[in-house]
Amino acid sequence: MSILLPSVDGAFRRHTPLTAPLAPLSCGAAHSRTFYSAAHVVADPLAASADSEPVIDWETTLAFRHRLWSQGLGVAEAMDTAQRGMGLDWPAAAELIRRSAADAGSVGGRIVCGAGTDQLAPDTVHSLAVITSAYEEQLAHVEACGAGAVLMASRALAAAARGPEDYLEVYGTLLRQSARPVVLHWLGPMFDPALEGYWGHGDLDEATDVFLKIIAECPEKVDGIKVSLLDAGREVDIRRRLPAGVRCYTGDDYHYPELIAGDGERSSDALLGIFDPIAPIAARAAIALDRDDPAGFRELLDPTVALSRHLFAPPTRYYKTGVVLLAWLAGYQEHFAMVGGLHSARSLPHLATAYELADDLGLFPDPELAEARMRQLFALHGVAS
Question: Which of 17, 20, 204, 281 is most buried, most CB within 10 Å of its CB?
Answer without folding.
Answer: 281
